[in-house]
Amino acid sequence: MTRALLIIDLQNDYFPGGAYPLAGTEVAAANAALLLASARARGSLVVHVRHESGEPDAPFFRPGTDGAAIHQAVAPRAGEAVVVKSGINAFLGTDLKAVLDEAGVTELTIAGAMSHMCVDAAVRAASDFGYAVTVVQDATATRDLDFDGRTVAAADVQAAFMSALAFGYASVISTTEALAAPAAA
């Protein structure tokens, strides 16, 4: 089985000082950087996903802005695949599946942002396509959400989405567990 590392939307706008900062993005990126170093050392396929908004007045990820650039902590190297998407699901309207299938990928390790949107959508789609998916929960980030007149804390959003993914779509583990696995990304 061939494993790939998929890093989703760890872009400057999600970091402190960016247009749409998330809770814990710096920790998530540091952990994703550890996964990235491990994947590179093993010669595993690495795929970076970068979101560009299709709307000129978008609040974040506007094409051509520094905010839409992949953060330096997990910046792609020459030759690493970069899939650009304009929607939530990294598989929808992109060549992501073709990139993975061409490399013979059967297992995906996923890190990135936002846990409750793009990570969730990619994990569910990948599982539906038949990939064995591992989500590295402390290499993902989200934010507080508002629902029904109340604020749901980012930690609760994270726990809800990670527990839902672990229930039926993915193995959800920590960075330490991922790096200790014999076939780590």
From TrEMBL:
Keywords: Hydrolase. SUPFAM superfamilies: Isochorismatase-like hydrolases. Residues 4-147 form the Isochorismatase-like domain. Pfam families: Isochorismatase (PF00857). InterPro entries: Isochorismatase-like_dom, Isochorismatase-like_hydrls, Isochorismatase-like_sf. One of its GO terms (molecular function) is hydrolase activity. The keyword Hydrolase applies. PANTHER family: ISOCHORISMATASE HYDROLASE, PEROXYUREIDOACRYLATE/UREIDOACRYLATE AMIDOHYDROLASE-RELATED. This is Cysteine hydrolase.
